[in-house]
Amino acid sequence: MSDSHPIDAAIVTSGLSKRYGEVEALSRLDLAVPRGAIYGFLGPNGAGKTTTIRLLMGFVKPSAGWATVLGHDAWRDGVAARRELGFLVAPDALYTDMTGLAQLDYAASLSGRPPLLRGALLDALELSEAALGRRLGTYSKGMRQKLALTAAIQHDPALLILDEPTDGLDPLIQRAFEQVLRERRDLGRTVFMSSHDLAEVERTCERVAVVRGGRLIAEETIVGLKRRQRRSAEVVFRGAVPEGLGRVPRVATVGHRGDRVELSIDGDVAPLLRFLAGEDVVDLLLPPPRLEDIFMGFYGDGTDGERDQDGPADDGQHLTERVSEGVELVGRR
Q: Tens digit of pLDDT for each residue in 100-134?
């Protein structure tokens, strides 16, 4: 393994690749996820996110390259890799004939560690004692998601791997769960999360990786991505638009109506602000860059989602079956 990756990284991948026949689901992925961080893994459907999580969990063997989880090879030493890990099992893979409490106890027994965080999680996610006494077959989608999250986190693992963790949660519970993640991070735990909710990622993650068509196209801090993003501004002058505006570095005029001008800014806004400080400005609208805008900029027409890069068309069912088996793998020593 290469020595170029941080020794204290929770997850490291090098040249990680996976093919399903002629389909290249993941190609030469290089990542280093630092410990004690909430790390976002972004991409549209079919970008390779699910394949990456399967590889990290040791559910499938890499076609090339390698991955380590908490210092252990994810495929060759998968049992050790999963020992300090919490994985969000798909709610549909939970046992519907079990009560909620029985499911949590079963998950705790597989982890081999006491469910120290169970009570706090149930309170934060508003999953009642009465609900825990019911069979999962009577649960709504949101209730199953809450139970799956509790099962993944209750034993306080060093690393959490979460695929769409807030899917099915209402906004208030979602915010409460985000606070749970921040508290775990502040205690040195690591969270690797895939999400379609870009606002959630922006609120919780310090760093993100963006994949497209099975390839990594960006890996950066949220702050760094925003600095790279082309921004828009609207300025209203008292009188005519000054001629010198066209000479401000990295600023282009995209619209002009009387005393009002719309601008596109490539990078640092400081040159524009210095110019405007010497002009008679009535109003300035300079909205902050949003992760959603940055994400859409990476994907353009969004055609990647039309082709399933994560394997054969029927592989979603296969994953559910493998995840169900994977619950038991997590607890084996």
A: 999 999 999 999 999 999 999 999 999 999 999 99
The β-bridge relationship of strands 9-20 and 23-34 is antiparallel
* Distance, CA of 36 to CA of 202 (rounded, Å): 17
The answer to whether 11 touches 67, Cβ cutoff 8 Å, is yes
Q: Is it the case that residue 59 has pLDDT exceeding 70?
A: yes
Residue 29 contacts residue 41 (beta carbons within 8 Å):
no
Q: How far is CA 166 from the centre of its chain?
A: 11
Residue type, 288: P
**pLDDT at position 331, please?**
39
Q: Which residue has the higher pLDDT, 158 or 199?
A: 158
The span from the CA of 45 to the CA of 322, in Å, is 19
Yes or no: say if 306 and 47 are a contact pair by the CB < 8 Å rule.
no
Contact 57, 67 (CB under 8 A): no
- For the CA atoms of 55, 220, 159, 188, the dihedral, rounded to the nearest 10 degrees, stands at 160
104-to-20, 99, 309 alpha-carbon distances in Å: 34, 9, 33
User: Per residue in 35-54, pLDDT tens?
Assistant: 999 999 998 888 899 999 99
- The secondary structure of 51-108 as a DSSP string is HHHHHHHTSS--SEEEEEETTEETTTTHHHHHTTEEE---GGGS-TTSBHHHHHHHHH
For residues 150 and 41, give the distance between their C-alpha atoms in angstroms, rounded to a whole number.
21
* Helices 49-57/315-331 angle, 10° precision: 30
> What length does the chain have?
333
- Residues paired with 141 in a beta bridge: none
Which domains, from first to last, does the chain contain? 9-225+298-331 (3.40.50.300), 230-288 (3.30.70)
Q: How far apart are the first and last CA of the chain?
A: 24
319: its two tokens = 């994953």
> How far is C-alpha 126 from the geometric centre of its chain's CA atoms?
23
Counting beta carbons within 10 angstroms of the beta carbon of residue 187, is it exposed (0 to 12), middle (13 to 18) or buried (19 or more)? exposed
- Rounded to whole angstroms, how far apart are CA atoms 59 and 319? 9
b/e map 118-144, b = 16+ CB within 10 Å? beebbebbebeeebbeeebeebeebbb
